Amino acid sequence: MDELTLGCGRCGAPLSYDGQAISVSCSFCGAVTLVEGQGKPHASLTTAAVATGTGATAAAVGRVQALVAVIAIGIVIVSIATYTFLSHVTTPAGKSLANKASSGRTAVQVVQNPLATTIDRMALLYPDAKREVNSMSSSLRIDLDDPAFEDITYEWDPGTLDHVSDMSLHSAQPPASRPAWVARLGPILGRQGVAKDPATYEYSWCGVHASVDESSVRVFATNLRAMNIGLGSAKIDWQGRLEQLWDLVKGAVFNPATSNVALGIRERLGELPLSSLARLDPQTDVDDSRRAVEAILPNACPTTGPNVSYKAAVDHPWFSEVTLAWENERGAKLNSVTFRPPGTSNGKLANQTAVAKCVVAWLGAPVENEVNHMEKIWSYHWARRGQVSVHVYDSYLWADGPFSTGEWRRLVQVLDDCGRR
User: Fold this and answer.
1) For residue 361, with 0-12 CB atoms within 10 Å meaning exposed, 13-18 middle and 19 or more buried, which class applies?
2) What does the alpha-carbon distance between residue 31 and residue 10 come to, in Å, rounded to a whole number?
3) How far is the C-alpha of 150 from the C-alpha of 135, rounded, in Å?
4) pTM of the entire predicted model
5) pLDDT level of residue 2 (50, 70, 90 thresholds)
6) Helix, strand, or coil here: 419?
7) Measured in whole angstroms, how far is the alpha carbon of residue 95 from the centre of its chain?
8) DSSP, residue by residue, 196-250
9) What is the rounded CA–CA span in Å between residue 372 and residue 30?
10) Rg of the chain on CA atoms, in Å
11) Average pLDDT estimate for 10-27
């Protein structure tokens, strides 16, 4: 009997069948094909026809499966190539098209979040925000759809997880409005802030800070452990100061009409007239010193050290900072006051001679001391037993008590008047 050619049901390869065997093995894939109806008239033909049809079908399926696999691989390759391309194409906001998802959030909306909150509560508002937690801080980055800023990051200090301690708005390109923001902040925050150029600004006072540069607007607090614990009267309400500073910066950036309205913010974060010091009673007891100082100098910042002291920012041509100190003992009264020049003066009294002459007009000739002959540095001293003594050094003026109410007011008036002539 002539051999008939059948097709393998697995791979479709041709099978040689003699019409008698009940099975045929494929020489290519090894599969065994059973043949029904062997030994009957035309059985082999019938079987051949059936088998050939089955083999053809299997071969077709195999070819389709191979084609599908090739198409799938092609799709994966195209997808990878497309993602790689998009990841290098950025939008005007600076985000790659592959990663950018429309959030519909603007900066002015997100900055309204209260700062007295936890990362968990804020994360509920923004499920798509990127959260990072480590031993140094916890942070939440929220993407924005905003012409000026691409995202905002809130951070929490490990020691104060119920209040944000750092907020920063980030921009991919330097916002064109930066000079206007800086111009609005400067007059309010005074010389505790410095404009390094028309579009770059830094402010620092009593543990809270603000900065504007080409890539971010940031408000943050530092040294939180010391401010949270404090020493006696030195515990600082950094949360309140930070919230006020954040409100001020938000106003300067997003709502200029409100940036100059909040006088309370300026009094607590900016400079106050030096003449305000005359309202302080020098006989105030140390136990009541903080209340008395903050009543007339809301920007006063308690400091740590052997004494109970407070520093305040003042608006005066010669001086920008005043430190008031009491001895840390029962019944102590105001013990000393130190006047320092603006930070822009590199820590030196630019007009030491004029300051000394001002005191001469009040207390007479001083004792002069040559501190450094080559650099021509002198100091001037009016030491008065039982009365106020004044010392003018090259970097500050220091007066120590005891202070009578009359002499205290006279000291403040003399310095304030001389510096404004």
Assistant:
1) exposed
2) 7
3) 27
4) 0.71
5) very low
6) helix
7) 19
8) EETTEEEEEETTEEEEE-SSEEEEEE--HHHHHH-SGGG---HHHHHHHHHHHHH
9) 104
10) 41
11) 66
